[in-house]
Every structure is written in structure tokens, then in C-alpha cells.
Amino acid sequence: MFPIYKYQPLEIPESIRVLVLHPAQNLNDPLQCDLVHRHRRQIPLSLDSNTNYYEAVSYAWGDCIFSRDLICGGNQLIKITPNVDSMLRRLRRISKLRNLWVDSVSINQRDMDEKRVQVPLMGQIYHQASKVHVWLGDADQEVGKVFAFLRTLATVGNDNVTLQLIREILVNLWGNTSTEAVDLFLQRPWFQRRWILQEIAFSREAIVRCSTLKVSWEWLVNGLENLRLACEYGLELGNRAIISLHTMCNLHKDGGRILGLLWDFDSAKCSDPRDRLFAIYSLARDISYDKTEGLQQRKQKIHAPLDYNANEDDLYSAFATSCIDSGHFLEILRHVLAFG
């Protein structure tokens, strides 16, 4: 039995940990890796021949039951969740190393000071990744048809989307007009997750994966956009699927105001209440992490408290106070009236 892996502190704030996933011939072979420190500024933005590049992964943690083993450095263990275990097995190559950034492993989750430094960098970390793998979980027998459905929808111009067309596509794939498989697909936990907002918004290229099945992000989101139009015309989906559609179709790379983002993505979930703020900080254009900025700059920006040692009540109070100090009292009141 190997001892639990002991994280070495990152040398400087610009450093990250890259998970170097070892190859294996068989899916069920033990997962093995090395964790290496990399200076983010020295990582290239293209694959070329440099071994320092990495790919990032966007996924839902699932239940925080760390029951699976990831062997690190040949003689230490990192405990991971079943979903991360399945994800790494599918991303593992047969004969080549794979460089990944996986937040649950690449950030020392027990070190709150490290999280305070790394979390503001996550938007940049996902942008600098050569590719982002969106892991939706293991596939069921319907996922292949759902991918085909969305690919077909993606080829249709917005002006040509009709209920009749949608029903014809459904019949061609399933033999009936039921949207049950699509509905269940959109209820997968990843679509409800709050952290995906910045992970996708900052990615330069993304591939969506279910087990061995995959589709490009562009195909997926274009298909979902047309599916949203069909819902406006009367196509019926469940409430959770509708919420997923709303989230996917409201992602925007240029960011926005922090209070606007909180409003638009209120339904997006996170397990830690503090992440309701932390998960969208990178998307906001009007926040600052620095209390020492000049008075004029502070009037234009909202101070973003980021402290995993603070409880959520103190954090929310500090954030609301900062918003009010920046002239957003009425908007804060609107949020309180809408969401409690």
C-alpha cells in the first residue's frame, strides 16, 4: 500500500501543476502519473515540438467520494473520485504521455492559501491550454444518437428551424418524436455546473466527450442554439434541460459585469456556496482583487473578496458591501428581492 501523495508548494504564483498521465495498453491498467511544476509564462500556446504544453479538462466532480487510486511518482497515491478515474482512463493514451491540467489534482485542495492564488488564474489556465476536454461522463446507449441529433441540428440555419423539421430528425433517429433521450442528456451534471462557465468561455478549442464518443464544442453549441429556438416554437423539454440550454446559450467569451453574470447564471450549481462568486470572477470585467488600487480605479471596479478561509455569510456580506461602495445599491437590492 503506497502512502498518500504529499504536495510540494508551488514556487511562485505563476506556477501550475501539470498532471503527466502515463500511457497504458489496457483500459483497466492502474492509473499512473507524475505531477510536475510549470511556470505558466513558459508554456507555449501551440503544440509544436515542445513538451511543456498541456490540455485542460472540464468536468463535474460528482459525489466527493475519493475511492479510486491515482499512482503518482511510482510510489505515492492521490485519491480521486470515480468520475475522475473514468475520465483519466478514457483520456489515457496507449503509447504516449499526456499532459493534463485537472483542477482536483493540479490544485492542492487542502491548501486554502494555494486555492486563493490559483483560482483567479483559472480563466488564464483554461485559455492557455492547447485544448479543453469536456467530460460529460460515461456514455449510455442513447448518447451517440443525441450527438447525431445535435450535429444535424447544427447544420440548419436559424431561419430554417421549425417544429416539423425537429420532429423529422427525431423520427429518423429514434423512430418517434419523443425528446426523452435529449432531455436526459441535458440533465447530465456537467451542464448544471457553475465552474464550466469560465472553463468554456476561455477555451481556444474544446472537444465534448462521453466515453469514446466525441463531438466538437462548436457542433454541440450550434445544435443547442437551434434546439433552444425549437423550444420557443413549442418543443417540450423538462425544466432541468431548459435550464441547461439557457446556460449553454448564454456563455460569452467577452465577459460582463459581475452582477449581470450572477443574474444570468443564478441556476448554475456548485457544491461550495462560496464558489457562487469565485467560479465567475474570471468572467467579470468590473472586479479587482487589489484593495490598494487608486481611488478612481476602485470607483470603477468592485473589489472581489477571495478567501476560502472565510465562511459564505462573511464573504457575501463583504461582496455586497463592495458593490454598494461602488454605486450598485439598487442593483444589489434587486438581487435580494429576486433571489433572497
Automatic annotation (TrEMBL):
Q: Which Pfam families match?
A: HET (PF06985)
The cross-references to InterPro entries, in alphabetical order and at most eight, read:
HET (IPR010730), HetReg/Transcr_Mod (IPR052895)
What region holds the Heterokaryon incompatibility domain? 54-199
List, alphabetically, the PANTHER family matched.
ANKYRIN REPEAT DOMAIN-CONTAINING PROTEIN 39 HOMOLOG-RELATED (PTHR24148), HETEROKARYON INCOMPATIBILITY DOMAIN-CONTAINING PROTEIN (PTHR24148:SF80)
What name goes with this protein? Heterokaryon incompatibility domain-containing protein
- The species is Zopfia rhizophila CBS 207.26
